[in-house]
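Thread title: Can someone regenerate the structure for this chain?

I was given the following input by a collaborator and told the matching structure tokens would be attached. They weren't. Posting the sequence so someone can regenerate them.
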Amino acid sequence: SGKIGNWRWKTRFRKSGVLRTGASVSDKYAFIDAEYAAACAPAIERMCRWLQVSKSGYYQWLHRPTSATA
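Best answer:
Regenerated them for you:
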């Protein structure tokens, strides 16, 4: 189930566009956040590794106040 589950999530990453060249780090963090909110999502650490972003950066992004321009 682990390899099959990984394949399914990697397919979701590809379809979401977060693996495309030029996808912003913020887009990747938002994808991780949305997917983690869903049941049975992979661990944050694993998704960060797949998307080549830092786990610490994700948590900083998560707890960052919303900007006035957002």
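Residues 2-16 form the longest helix (15 residues).
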